[in-house]
Design brief:
Elements: E1 2-3, H1 5-12, H2 16-24, E2 32-33, E3 39-42, H3 43-57, H4 62-74, H5 79-120
Antiparallel strand pairs: 1-3, 2-3
């Protein structure tokens, strides 16, 4: 099936202007055009756009994504280089995942902290709280600083 840039924009949730920019920057060498120059995306192009979006989300620049696409266009002789890039971006995202999980953990702790403070009507409820009254998942969060700092 063929899709216009407007249709693929809706399907992918990518502004048509972004798709035009990608094309201008050489990220879409696989997209066919009609005799009138209208871009016509195919079903297989959706998967390529998903990879481009994924690489963009990992922090790769447009020029780096272009290099990756050029490697893909070169064929099997570049598999090692492509795998290296994917492995590098994967490791970057795993590090980001760790940071996000740590942030979520702090936020969950603070949800519990302020919920119990709200129920007690004061943050001082935590000053002398025994460790066994704190959910086990938050034992690593207990700090003396909360006995003196209002955050």
């Amino acid at each position: 099936m063929s899709y216009t840039i407007g249709e693929i924009s809706k399907i992918m949730g990518i502004p048509a202007s972004t798709l035009r920019y990608y094309d201008k920057e050489g990220l879409l060498p696989f997209v066919k055009r009609t005799s009138g120059g209208i871009r016509m995306f195919q079903d297989k192009d959706i998967a390529a756009l998903e990879v481009i979006n994924c690489l963009k989300q990992t922090g790769l620049s447009i020029s780096e994504i272009k290099k990756f696409i050029d490697l893909c266009e070169e064929g099997d002789s570049t598999i090692d280089q492509r795998l290296e890039l994917i492995n590098r971006q994967y490791q970057i995202m795993k590090e980001e995942e760790k940071k996000i999980k740590a942030t979520i953990h702090v936020l969950k702790y603070k949800q519990w902290y302020y919920k119990t403070a709200k129920e007690a009507g004061t943050c001082s409820i935590h000053f002398n709280m025994e460790k066994d009254h704190v959910p086990e998942e938050f034992h690593d969060m207990i700090r003396n600083s909360e006995k003196t700092h209002p955050l």
